[in-house]
Amino acid sequence: IKKLIYTHVVIWLLLLAQMCVGHLKLLPHDQVAMPYQWEYPYLLSILPSLLGLLSFPRNNISYLVLSMISTGLFSVAPLIYGAMEMFPMAQQLYRHGKAYRFIFGFSAVSVMYLVVVVAAQVHGWQLYYSKKLLDSWFTSTQEKKKK
Where are the transmembrane segments (predicted)? Predict the structure, then answer.
């Protein structure tokens, strides 16, 4: 789970860098496009990762549960919204070959769909393994209470 959290932090930092470069105009907009609307709420996805990391030192079940719930709210939900938000641009690129936003010469919608796919996999595996870990912690807690 820690490796998945670190992978998520890398994705998060890349999106944050794109947002900073776009808003601070460090590079021209034809090189790095302005961020899509879904990227702003996705910035909150760092909170579930921090809660997940805080749950490990003492096997804190409540932090892990909060991490799992907030992963759905702050990570998965913006990704779903982002896939829907970018769909018309992807359709236009596929049908007509026209792209209006670019990230270092690549179509921004293509790059961002790649980010969405990778992030969805990371969050999906993170939720899966968090559930397995939660079950394990809960079982060990119940066994301690019986003794």
Answer: 6-28, 63-81, 102-122
- Total tally of structural domains belonging to the chain: 1
Q: For residue range 27-72, list pLDDT tens digits in order.
A: 988 888 899 999 999 999 999 999 999 999 988 899 999 999 999 9
Q: Is residue 46 part of a domain?
A: yes
Whether 49 is in a domain gets the answer yes
Q: Any long-range contacts for 46-52 (C-beta under 8 Å, 24+ apart)?
A: 46/9, 46/12, 47/74, 48/74, 48/75, 49/5, 49/8, 49/9, 49/12, 52/1, 52/5, 52/126, 52/130
Confidence of residue 99 (pLDDT cuts 50, 70, 90): confident
- Domain of 125, in residue numbers: 1-13+36-98+107-139
